[in-house]
Amino acid sequence: MSRLKQSAVLQYQPERRMNTEFVDSNPCVLLIETDEKLAAQVSRDLHESGYETVVASDAMSGLHQADACKPALIVIDRVLSGETGLGLCTHLRSAGARVPMVVLMGRDTVDDRVACLEAGADDYFLKPYRSEEFLKLVRLYLKPDVSEAEQLRFGDLILDLAARRAIRHGRTIDLTMKEFELLKYLMEHPREVLSREQILENVWGYDFMGESNVIEVYVRYLRLKIEDEEQKRLIQTVRGVGYVLREA
């Protein structure tokens, strides 16, 4: 067992879970980056854009800071000393973290993207670092929730917009940032067939380069969380087109 696995229970307390239900005017971004030069540049860009920034240089100190500073967003380099960035994502999610996490990656393949999502990351940013594009991505995750309605409902499924949780048959379902945004978009357009392009544009805010099964991965995650063998399937696949929220 790695040092990070042995220390995770001690250094990250699930009962003090991070959340993004309320984002203040100067949210904190935790940057976990080994490259000092890159960390300094990213930190400077974040600071100049009005974000408080905390920098950790390895996985262990990143885990400690995640509990200490309660960030609104965590940016993690995939390559870290002591533990991979994806390993750290997995530990944080397992400990109950709901904060959005973005992974900095040097490669862009379907397998790399899927690995990020399966580790619990909400998104990724492909190196080399580009200030304007990176800050655009950060703003997507830290923009205030301007929704007027308290809840969205479809059949026996309820989406609590304030708590950013789903409820079905009285069972509360915790969602990651992207799971919430995807389900919210589907519930805002019930019984309407939504193309993959529409979903990418409205949930991710930009197009992924090349072919990607990122939507399929997230739909699978949502189905596992909101559907079981005794409940009706709500998220239907329309082959060759996209997805639709409707009862079978």
Structure commentary:
The structure is a single chain. The chain is an alpha/beta fold and 248 residues long. The longest helix is centred in the N-terminal third of the chain and has 13 residues, at 36-48. The chain is globular, with a radius of gyration of 18 Å. The protein contains nine helices and twelve strands. It has two domains: 3-142, Rossmann fold (3-Layer(aba) Sandwich); 151-245, Arc Repressor Mutant, subunit A. Helix content is 39%, strand content 20%. The strands form three sheets. A five-stranded parallel sheet has the order 2-1-3-4-5, sandwiched between helices. Strands 6-7-8-9 form a four-stranded antiparallel sheet, covered by helices on one side.
List keywords for this structure.
single chain, 248 residues, alpha/beta, Rossmann fold, Arc Repressor Mutant, subunit A, 2 domains, five-stranded parallel sheet, 20% strand
What's the arrangement of secondary structure elements?
Layout: H1 3-11, E1 28-32, H2 36-48, E2 52-56, H3 59-68, E3 73-77, H4 85-94, E4 101-105, H5 110-118, E5 123-126, H6 131-142, E6 151-154, E7 157-160, E8 165-168, E9 171-174, H7 177-188, E10 194-195, H8 196-204, H9 214-226, E11 235-238, E12 242-245
Parallel strand pairs: 1-2, 1-3, 3-4, 4-5
Antiparallel strand pairs: 6-7, 7-8, 8-9, 10-12, 11-12
